[in-house]
Amino acid sequence: MIDHMSTDEDLILQIKSGNDTAYHILMSRYMKHIFNFILQYVRIREEAEDVAQDTFFKAWKYINRFKNGMKFKPWLFTIARNTALDYIKKKKATSFSEIDVGTADTENDSSFAESVVDTEPLPSELFSRAQLSEQLDNAMSVLHPDHRAVLIMHYREDMTFEEIAETLKRPMNTVKSWHRRSLDKIRDSLVHIRP
Amino acid sequence: MHRNSRCIRTITTMKPEETYKKLFLHMTTNEPHKGVAVVVVTRIQRSQLMQTRTRAGAHSFFVLATLIGLAPAGQQLFASATSSGFIQFASLGWSDGVSVLGSWKAFIFTMIESAPILEMSIVLGLVLTCTYSLRRSAYYFAKLSTRKASSYATA
């Protein structure tokens, strides 16, 4: 018996045995999360919806490759990211150089992640600003898509750095340094905006 | 005012991780169009239909191919069984059961020696493949007709 309270793993077992309802439940559970995640790569809403469609279709198609003991959320987010990157490549909306810059700066990340001091907390006055969400969206928009994705996965999806590293297929130190660097950038841009 | 200052004090005592978590709650979240899920379901159904059709077609082809292959294989089996004397030995077992039972060991060895093993294996393989494909194609055609019936019902 499956319902909306069933775990992802239970639902996947049901899907594998041919239960379509289980996939509907899983899809409704993750649709919004995946859509917002894809929006970090594909910034146009309609295109993000297309990529979300492809993501869920691919996830259904390759569900038999999902092995017991794996976590569904990172697996699904990996598909979403790959689908979004494929879409971007096909469309050539984003130049490859942008992606290259984002991945090339990972060379010394392991040492970087260890050496950097903790990120400073945000000033409390920030939270009283009326346009905070708009300013945050603007600050996020200048980040690299993967860096945005790290923040979304960590703070909105409550994913651990280990899960994020698994999703992005990057070393954990790289992910940590992306996270730290992105927070610093966001902090800088928010602090320097006049309320 | 009092409430605001209390809130600010709370935030100041928070760890950086917590303040960022709070910050990201302010981020705009977007709702995808409800039709997205419907399109996915339609695509899945279409894909399942295509898969069922392909499988039904493939199994039907196997049934046909094995039936066509069974004719020459059967003929070859009959010819080999006749020339090796297998049929004569087998008929002896039927007509003169008592003497066969008397020297059953020798009879079995002769039967095995004269049996056209290769031809028998081919025919057996074809029969099994044909039966299996027939069963599968019946299953897929039944699935297709159920789907068609349900789509008429929903229409």
Walk me through this protein's architecture.
The complex is a heterodimer of chains A (195) and B (155). With 195 residues, chain A is mainly alpha-helical. Chain A is 67% helix and 0% strand. Chain A is built from ten helices and no strands. Chain A has helices spanning 8-16, 20-38, 45-61, 72-91, 96-104, 109-115, 132-141, 145-156, 161-168, 172-191. In chain A, helix 4 (72-91) crosses helix 9 (161-168) and helix 6 packs across helix 10. The longest helix of chain A has 20 residues, at 72-91. The two termini of chain B are 61 Å apart. Chain B is elongated, with a radius of gyration of 36 Å. Mean pLDDT of chain B is 84; it is low at 7-12. Chain B is built from seven helices and no strands. The relative contact order of chain B is 0.10. The interface between A and B is large, with 41 and 31 residues.
Summarize the structure.
The complex is a heterodimer of chains A (195) and B (155). Chain A has 195 residues and is mainly alpha-helical. Chain A is 67% helix and 0% strand.
Q: Which stretches of chain B are low in confidence, meaning pLDDT under 50 for 5 or more residues running?
A: 7-12
Q: Termini separation of chain A (Å)?
A: 53 Å
Q: What's the overall average pLDDT of chain A, rounded?
A: 82
Helix/strand/pairing category of chain B? mainly alpha
Using the alpha-carbon principal axes, give the shape of chain A: elongated
Report the oligomer.
heterodimer
Looking at the structure, what is the overall shape of chain B? elongated
Total strands of chain B:
0
Q: Helix segment count of chain B? A: 7
Strand content of chain B: under 5%
Unreliable runs of chain A: 100-117
Strand count, sense and barrel status of the largest sheet of chain B are: none
Secondary-structure element series of chain A: HHHHHHHHHH
Q: Biggest chain pair contact, residues each?
A: A-B, 41 and 31 residues
Distance between the termini of chain B: 61 Å
- Radius of gyration computed on alpha carbons of chain B: 36 Å
Give the helices and strands of chain B as they follow along the chain.
HHHHHHH
Binned, the helix content of chain A reads: 55-70%
What is the mean pLDDT of chain B?
84
Tell me the radius of gyration of chain A.
18 Å
